[in-house]
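Tokens as discussed.
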């Protein structure tokens, strides 16, 4: 097996399983661990994976997007802490937009149930989480359902969203960088997120440290458009400071 074929195999495995391990890859491809480390380094330089201690995980891009099911298995403790901290930023908001994705779903679970709230979402998972909350009214945006994320998109969703003035939007992204802002692979998803940004008076980004520095196809917001960024301590404090210089308060939990 040639080098390029092996690297394609490594990338396919990462995307299928959600992560790869150096020891397992070395055994599978019958090469030295150092060879695998060089392969991962090359794949990381091309923006296809992000290396971790002992392995790597795939980076979402214009041509690749992880499913909601895969997202529920990675960085779960960090995502839970992020969701709790993000929900604490609710303040006196009465109308809230909650984005698609697993971290926003956890934010929905963390919202208070003892006060009236109106939640607007494109996510069937978020709507399901809040369906039995007696004091929460859920408005589910219509449109084409994306099976990979169980969320609606296209003009039905954006037109409905454009008619609202929302106190606070909890927004996710596939990537966030100081240079390119917040990005996502699918233009239809990007349109819904962009409209949520326009409709909301306050905006909070919530995402794990692995999102930072990643860049996808469709830009829908700038870092400075947010009042707060909530992430985990995997984002170095120095890098968090660089993001905060662009405007938002960066919370690491």
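Sequence:
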């Amino acid at each position: 097996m040639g080098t390029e074929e092996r690297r394609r195999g490594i990338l396919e495995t990462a995307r299928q399983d959600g992560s790869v391990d150096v020891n397992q890859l070395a055994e599978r491809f019958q090469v030295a661990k150092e060879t695998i480390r060089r392969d991962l380094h090359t794949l990381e330089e091309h923006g296809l994976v992000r290396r971790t201690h002992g392995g790597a995980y795939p980076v979402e891009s214009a041509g690749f997007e992880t499913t909601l099911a895969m997202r529920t298995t990675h960085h779960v403790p960090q995502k839970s802490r992020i969701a709790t901290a993000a929900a604490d930023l609710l303040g006196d908001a009465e109308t809230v937009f909650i984005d698609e994705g697993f971290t926003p779903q956890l934010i929905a679970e963390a919202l208070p149930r003892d006060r009236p709230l109106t939640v607007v979402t494109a996510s069937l998972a978020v709507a399901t989480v809040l369906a039995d909350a007696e004091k929460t009214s859920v408005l589910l945006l219509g449109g084409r359902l994306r099976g990979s994320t169980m969320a609606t998109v296209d003009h039905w969703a954006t037109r409905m969203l454009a008619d609202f003035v929302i106190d606070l939007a909890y927004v996710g992204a596939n990537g966030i960088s100081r240079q390119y802002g917040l990005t996502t692979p699918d233009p239809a998803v990007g349109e819904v997120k962009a409209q949520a940004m326009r409709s909301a008076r306050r905006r909070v980004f919530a995402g794990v440290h692995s999102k930072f520095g990643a860049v996808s196809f469709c830009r829908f917001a700038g870092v400075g458009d947010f009042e707060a960024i909530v992430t985990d301590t995997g984002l170095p404090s120095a890098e968090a400071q660089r993001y905060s210089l662009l405007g938002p308060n960066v919370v690491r939990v």
